[in-house]
Amino acid sequence: MEAALSLEIKICGLSTAETLEASLGAGADMVGMVFFAPSPRHVDFATAATLGAQARGRAQIVALTVDADDATLAAILDALRPDMFQLHGHETPARVAAIRARFGLPVMKALGIASAEDLAALAAYEGVADRLLLDAKPPKGAVLPGGNGVTFDWNLLAGLDLARPFMLSGGLDPENVASAVRLIHPPGLDVSSGVERGPGIKDPSRIEAFLRAARAAEAEGGARRPTGDTPAGAKPTPPSPARETSPS
Ligand SMILES: O=C(O)c1ccccc1NCC(=O)[C@H](O)[C@H](O)COP(=O)(O)O
């Protein structure tokens, strides 16, 4: 019998019904909505409510926030009813734990990776976050802390052994995703600008191409099953303790 495929793929920064439908139809496991006003992908609460209703039960719904306070998180929870929060700011491990405890939702913490030293920071978050999202650091002077279409040296993750599932992120696109899957064998992938035709404008054909290329690489044996996963909608269990060239 063929092994079930398990690579989790998240399309982030969706803001229209059409591109959300393209993502769901092409088999995205997670769909992300950005709540960060300076972003071209920012969604208001009314739009979020509509998109949430469209996606519910078809993929995990992820609400991306940046150093949001509790009142903002509560308002997002009300409007979107996400399955998970993605924290993409400077949230400390204590803040991650507090959000998780207060809102009863799984939390994915995004961390920027540029050097081997950055990997040391992962340990502090492994015990408090349900998942980690390993992203490129923003370029100097960037307005956005993520969604910048830049890669980092994927080789830094060779041999990485985390207690929590992680998503590889940063500068992925339909052209380079198979190489990333073959090299890193990540449990999950996250993409935003690589499936756009312009800032904040998702392209259904690139979304489909991304999912197709990632799944094909996975089928060749390039991905591994997530560990310690939290199912969609489930109350979280306490965790144990500017596009660049593809890295070689
Ligand atoms: O996408 C945004 O606009 C954004 C704004 C503020 C914080 C994070 C943001 N995106 C983070 C993501 O989850 C992206 O998918 C991730 O950084 C990868 O982005 P990309 O390199 O564009 O694929």
TrEMBL record:
<feature type="region of interest" description="Disordered">
    <location>
        <begin position="214"/>
        <end position="248"/>
    </location>
</feature>
<keyword id="KW-0413">Isomerase</keyword>
<dbReference type="InterPro" id="IPR001240">
    <property type="entry name" value="PRAI_dom"/>
</dbReference>
<comment type="pathway">
    <text>Amino-acid biosynthesis; L-tryptophan biosynthesis; L-tryptophan from chorismate: step 3/5.</text>
</comment>
<feature type="compositionally biased region" description="Basic and acidic residues">
    <location>
        <begin position="215"/>
        <end position="227"/>
    </location>
</feature>
<keyword id="KW-0822">Tryptophan biosynthesis</keyword>
<dbReference type="Pfam" id="PF00697">
    <property type="entry name" value="PRAI"/>
</dbReference>
<dbReference type="GO" id="GO:0000162">
    <property type="term" value="P:L-tryptophan biosynthetic process"/>
</dbReference>
<comment type="similarity">
    <text>Belongs to the TrpF family.</text>
</comment>
<dbReference type="InterPro" id="IPR013785">
    <property type="entry name" value="Aldolase_TIM"/>
</dbReference>
<feature type="domain" description="N-(5'phosphoribosyl) anthranilate isomerase (PRAI)">
    <location>
        <begin position="9"/>
        <end position="211"/>
    </location>
</feature>
<protein>
    <recommendedName>
        <fullName>N-(5'-phosphoribosyl)anthranilate isomerase</fullName>
        <ecNumber>5.3.1.24</ecNumber>
    </recommendedName>
</protein>
<dbReference type="InterPro" id="IPR011060">
    <property type="entry name" value="RibuloseP-bd_barrel"/>
</dbReference>
<dbReference type="InterPro" id="IPR044643">
    <property type="entry name" value="TrpF_fam"/>
</dbReference>
<keyword id="KW-0057">Aromatic amino acid biosynthesis</keyword>
<dbReference type="GO" id="GO:0004640">
    <property type="term" value="F:phosphoribosylanthranilate isomerase activity"/>
</dbReference>
<keyword id="KW-0028">Amino-acid biosynthesis</keyword>
